[in-house]
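Service request form, structural biology core

Requester: graduate student, group of Dr. S.
Request type: structure prediction, single chain
Budget code: on file
Notes: please return the result as structure tokens.

Sequence provided:
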Amino acid sequence: MASIPVHNDWLIIVNPNAGNGKGKKDWDRISGLLEKNGISFEAKFTEKKGQAIEFARESTGAGFRKIISVGGDGTLNEVVNGIFTQDNCSPREVVVGMIPVGTGNDWGRMFGIPLVYEGAVKVLKENKTMPHDIGLISYYNGNTQEKRYFINIAGLGFEALVVKKTNKQKDKGRSNQAIYFYNLLSSLIFYKKINSEITIDGKSSSCNIFSINVGNGRYCGGGMRQTPEALPDDGLLDITVIRDMSRIEVIKSLKLLYDGTILSHPLVDGYRCNNLKVTSDPVMFAEADGESLGHTPVEFSIIPGGINVVYGVKIIQ
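Core staff response, request fulfilled:
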């Protein structure tokens, strides 16, 4: 295969619908700040779900090795999946940055990327980079096995149900953190715990499961800390398993999800591992970086240092 000339410019993938249309409304301001700070770029605007995957995949063939995602966590997830489903270069040759304009912006929260555009562009200009682990989830849609890469947090069970409801409302143009919280509370009325078998690095156990979260990152759902001790560069997945918890106990424990002490609850187990397999009856549905996927059986694995990211503040533990 002939070598591809590498660009020095950034490719910027813009989701104009992110943040209830902020991607489109604020683009002139964002692009002006980038130009003012001497950041040279080409921009592409998505018009449909999944198009950021296509743009990121195509960009490596055009010689781009630096990509900025302008959108929310879902747009960033698509960019990552585009990078990992191309064969023009190793994903480790690619640097990814982010200007958050979504509703949750949980990945950027962990790295100190400001929601104020001037601050986010300053982070890009400083261009501090680090290797970042990437998670991989294998799951089923009916009888078809599929896979999805994720950079932040994936979830099974109750979390995935809330995400699915929230995404339906996003598709109708209604999206904010209050809607996520409303869906969380309203879903409690009907949700039932599911009997599951969990295999962590080869060791299996069975129990009733309320939810499972699998993280490289610490935040999801607009600031909840489902995997509060996760590190993005330790080569391991952090697992939080919420077992047979009653509806009343879930409501009483919401504070623990926001203050980072959820692992102190007696019905919550925390693990670090390389591999997690989950089977259940009935099936549990899955999500990754806020994108609704299929269902169990699922398998999670980790790609250590799979990609490079631009960060503002680095987490050290």
